[in-house]
């Protein structure tokens, strides 16, 4: 797959002109150190997507509890935008 992607980017300028590379964290951030994640992939305010990897398969974790602070923040911000 990687070679195919390289070929498309290298030999098809229409694709290259529309291509943007973004840090992994922006489209696939992890919620935070409390969930066992650390490093540069943790969620920051300007990120688009948070991935709660493993919360549904780990009996000691709760997806709902992990998502709750982000959900309430999103809900509050959406309310502000609609006013």
What does this structure look like?
- 46% of the residues lie in helices and 0% in strands.
- It is built from four helices and no strands.
- It is flat and about 45 Å long.
- With 83 residues, the chain is mainly alpha-helical.
| Rg from alpha-carbon coordinates | 17 Å
Envelope shape: flat
Mean of residue pLDDT values: 84
Number of strands: 0
Terminal Cα span: 46 Å
What structural class do you assign from the helix and strand content?
mainly alpha
User: Secondary-structure element sequence?
Assistant: HHHH
Beta-sheet strand percentage?
A: under 5%
Q: The biggest beta sheet, please?
A: none
Low-confidence stretches: none
Count, helices: 4
Amount of helix: 40-55%
Which terms summarize this structure?
83 residues; mainly alpha; 4 helices
Provide a short characterization of the protein structure.
This protein has helices at residues 2-11, 13-16, 24-27, 63-82.
């Amino acid at each position: 797959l990687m070679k195919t992607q390289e070929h498309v980017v290298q030999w098809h300028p229409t694709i290259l002109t529309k291509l943007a590379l973004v840090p992994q964290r922006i489209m696939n951030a992890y919620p935070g150190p409390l969930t066992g994640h650390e490093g540069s992939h943790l969620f920051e305010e300007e990120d688009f997507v948070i991935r709660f990897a493993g919360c549904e398969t780990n009996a000691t974790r709760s997806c709902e509890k992990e998502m709750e602070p982000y959900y309430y923040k999103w809900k509050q911000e959406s309310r502000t935008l609609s006013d």
